[in-house]
């Protein structure tokens, strides 16, 4: 599976790096490809290190104004002209999306992916990995949006919430197996 991961490029504490490293390792051990923002800094680096050290393939999608931060040893690197093109490339090259901790850039990516899914413009599974309760407030807001009629589709059809890396990957694996079975 080609798994797109949105997350921060900031250097953050162990409460976030442990989960990023573990998720990367699980991707690599499972023979999956990490498709991510391509940065060789912060959590992006930690995630990619975990995937690569466990035998995973790396596809980095950087952007022109950040290309100097791109990881040099990927299996494939794409330099997008702008952030919109980068998000489109990330979605195009992935089979599934995982949203990990991050700032405004990660939130922008997450909401765009969910908006596209809401309108039926992609049907890929989306997991919000709620490391250390980081997205508790967002989860509550999404539930309120659903309860008050702001979402035209059930929240469970848009995003799955996972509390740890293993649960995130288990959901994606089960989702893929179910959908492959439906096509057969």
Q: What does this entry look like structurally?
A:
By secondary structure, the chain is an alpha/beta fold. The protein has one domain (2-183): 3-Layer(aba) Sandwich (Rossmann fold), CATH 3.40.50. The protein has 7 helices and 7 strands; from the N terminus they run E-H-E-H-E-E-H-E-H-E-H-H-E-H. It has helices at 14-29, 42-53, 83-92, 104-118, 136-147, 155-158, 165-183; strands at 2-6, 33-36, 57-63, 76-80, 96-99, 126-129, 160-162. It has a 7-stranded parallel sheet with strand order 4-3-2-1-5-6-7, with helices on both faces. Helix 1 (14-29) runs parallel beside helix 2 and helix 1 (14-29) packs parallel to helix 7 (165-183). The two termini are 18 Å apart.
Task: Give a quick summary of the entry.
The chain has 184 residues and is α/β, with parallel strands linked by helices. Helices cover 48% and strands 17% of the residues. The chain contains seven helices and seven strands.
- Biggest sheet strand order reads 4-3-2-1-5-6-7
Order of helices and strands: EHEHEEHEHEHHEH
CATH class: Alpha Beta
Provide the β-strand percentage band. 15-25%
Oligomer: single chain
Class derived from helix and strand content: alpha/beta
Q: Main β-sheet: number of strands, strand sense, barrel status?
A: 7 strands, parallel
- How many β-strand runs? 7
CATH architecture: 3-Layer(aba) Sandwich
What share of the residues lie within helices? 40-55%
Distance N terminus to C terminus?
A: 18 Å
CATH topology type? Rossmann fold
Count of helical stretches: 7
